[in-house]
Amino acid sequence: MRSSGYKRFVWWLVASVAVMCVPFLTDNGFMLKILAKDVGTNALVVLGLALLFGYGGQVSLGHAAFIGIGAYTSALVTMRFELPWLAGVAAAALVSAAGGALLALPSLRLRGHYLAMATLGFGEIMHIVFREATPLTGGFDGLRGIPSVAIGGFVFKSPESIYWLVWGIVLVALLLAYNVVALRPGRAMRALHGSELGSQACGVDTVRVKVQVFVVSAALAGIAGSLYAHVARFISPEIFTLHRSVILLSMAVLGGTSSLAGPIVAAVGLSILKYVDSFVPGMPDAASTFLQDWELDIYGLTIIVVMLFAPGGIGGAFRSLRQRFRKKAAPDPEGEGVSAA
Amino acid sequence: MTEAREMLRVEKVSSGYGHVGVLEGVSIHVMHGEVVTLIGSNGAGKSTLLKTVAGVLSPTGGSVVFDGRDISGITPEKAVEAGLALVPEGRRLFGSMSVGENLELGAYARRRSRSFSSEFAEDLEIVHELFPVLGERVDQSAATLSGGEQQMLAIARALMSRPRLLLLDEPSLGLAPKVISEIFAILDRLRSRGVTILLVEQDASVALRHADRGYVLRTGRVELEGTASELLANDDVRMIYLGSWKKSVSGT
Ligand SMILES: Nc1ncnc2c1ncn2[C@@H]1O[C@H](COP(=O)(O)OP(=O)(O)OP(=O)(O)O)[C@@H](O)[C@H]1O
Ligand SMILES: [Mg+2]
What are chain B's domains? Predict the structure, then answer.
């Protein structure tokens, strides 16, 4: 166990260096900004959704609402109260987490799949709130002139600095998630991941674990929302829609339940789709228009293909490739525990 | 008969999954130190009854009384704290974790007790004495154990919570006859130590030979009840549930 944790840390380190080096490879500031503002914030939300799906066995169809709550909270804290960004992002995480707890507690106490339904309704209600609570949210027009991220005296204005900030947060969150899952405090989570009935039989309070994971995922979405708001410097209700929630969930599902890096890779791959023309320079207009027009269908198709041919998602596919490579049968750490028959 | 105290009373319990009712007014009881078996064909509701007693399912009607306390609708973690331990059908071990970690999780409900570490060490010793194989494989991942070893680990994990009533769901599932008799030999040892057991089994003949009393469950109702020897001698039981029983008797 310990040595696999060490190996994982080395992988994390290598991947982090690679990710952080991207700004040295390009001077396309527009692209870097997209990689931070859209791709990076999606990756942060998907990390939370992957924890929720993989370890709590739950799905959320309302995480765009938590991004929105974080974005509006952070914008208001910095604009109305003229507090620094750190106060804004802290408030964003707290308010989103509180919203997550209010939603998850009652719906998870009931046995059954009520949480997914509750998140769907919650997302729609919050979308209406963002649109209608004009004095706070600016209504349809949204909020403009949100201050840039600033820590101490340093203002994150250049595309490089913004990229490093967002991806730095994503990578630290990934490392923290690995540790929570691997260490002693996370054993109830790992037990739930291994087998729900098994963990109930051991006296693990599975409802509590699920609520905790949901709250963490809501907080991550809140932080992502704050980052988005202060990088884009403009937010409006149409950014926090059911459509967005569904896409985020697809990324988590596509990434698979057996790893946390898999969902992040999926988030990057699928988030880029929308901006494919600026990432692949020589691409004919017709091809990029096609990819953009059919974006949602491509998500759907990808998910179906994954479900059919690689049910473990990207993470699972990596794992089985690695195992084939070593020609050594390792136990499948997934599934509903070890069962007879 | 004053010393025979009642440990569990399930009174007219109805239960199921969502809107699907499975149990319809089931009543059973288990006395201190008894081994009671539930037999019945596939889908009769045996696992549903155990899950309802263990708090995994909430009864929609009736009551579950454990040691004089009404625990109907209790949460699973409170049930474990109260002294009920479920060994689920199909073991439900934590496959990617080691044998040692599985045993540690078995003691999860008592992690906050003040004398936890010394009690844990004691229990681990008892478990290793009962299941020497597990002691040899502490660091091996549960998924790589043989079927019999996995069943032993599932029982051991449940014992780590210091249960007063062990709820065993089909310990013989998928095991070879020789391994089944090993498992039942261990159950006999637990029984002689005074552990109270509610045992669900497909194999009625094995179950009744190792139990004091039994209930026959059929489509969510108790069809028959009696002492193990009464049930073994019952014509209906022999015909429906002990098809192979005559053969095994004539064979010995
Ligand atoms: N999770 C579930 N959701 C819905 N219905 C279920 C579920 N589990 C069991 N059932 C249904 O409840 C009924 C009783 O199932 P149960 O598992 O209690 O039977 P059993 O007596 O344990 O059978 P077996 O000997 O096959 O284990 C069956 O009709 C089954 O289809
Ligand atoms: Mg069963």
Answer: 1-83+196-252 (3.40.50.300)
